[in-house]
Amino acid sequence: MNDRDFLTMLEKRQSEGSNVCVGLDVDYWNEQFIPDSRTPELAVTEHAFAVIMQTRTIAAAYKLNWAFYLQLGDDGIRILRSIVDFVRLYADCVPIILDGKFGDIGNTGKAYARTAFEIVKADAVTVNPYMGVADVTAPFLAYPGKFCYVLVKTSNPGSGELQGLSVGYTLARMFFFEEVARNAKRLGSDRLGAVVGATFPSELKLLRDNYPDMQFLVPGLGAQGGSPEAIALAGPNTIFNSSRGIVFADDPYNAAAELHNLISGSLYSQ
Length: 270
Hints:
Number of domains: 1
Structural class: alpha/beta
Low-confidence stretches: none
CATH class: Alpha Beta
CATH topology: TIM Barrel
Strand order of the largest sheet: 1-2-3-4-5-8-9-10
Distance between the termini: 42 Å
CATH architecture: Alpha-Beta Barrel
Number of helices: 12
Radius of gyration: 18 Å
CATH superfamily: Aldolase class I
Mean pLDDT: 93
Strand content: 15-25%
């Protein structure tokens, strides 16, 4: 039986005024990372543990991009799992997102879901909807209490290549990213949210206006150049991710607190 419901946990954190998603992307080969341990496993886990302990009172969620752990080879999944276990031990009220951008179907999709929820023991995932929102999310939503953030309008500069295409055959034409969001909403599940980049505030506003109750995961603030005005546009049922800006900061607590204060000032001072 699942005793962790992602949406319940997240909404509780949000009701307490927490909207910061801490991206635990401890990239061993990033030039900002100076390992002080003898092995990649010790360096990465010790660094992640320290960030968790410093940010656990602020974080609304932790997000782990699994590519940074798979690149560590045979130890990767074990390291990833040890970090998840550490969160559950010392910050159990904070839900965990596995950022894998999963996008397959059938038995392959089931294998990804089993890995995310039974092996890594995450509470939510990110998914790529290219093969169809319903087919891609079905294996993950088969797990009670779990959640999927669907890539809708991503923060990278080239996202418009496909996401910005105009689709439809009537006067009611829309952008491809709008159709993805519409399909996610049409499934009628409250366990589907949207990834919407802070680097595209007008698109973010359009999506929020159309889907006021949907949970958003907003990357792109800080290192990617996202505008702070995106915070107010996204609204309170949103978590704003920062990865490099927190995990590689000289003081992760202060970095997370600064983001928290920026979000609070935009969302709750009006």
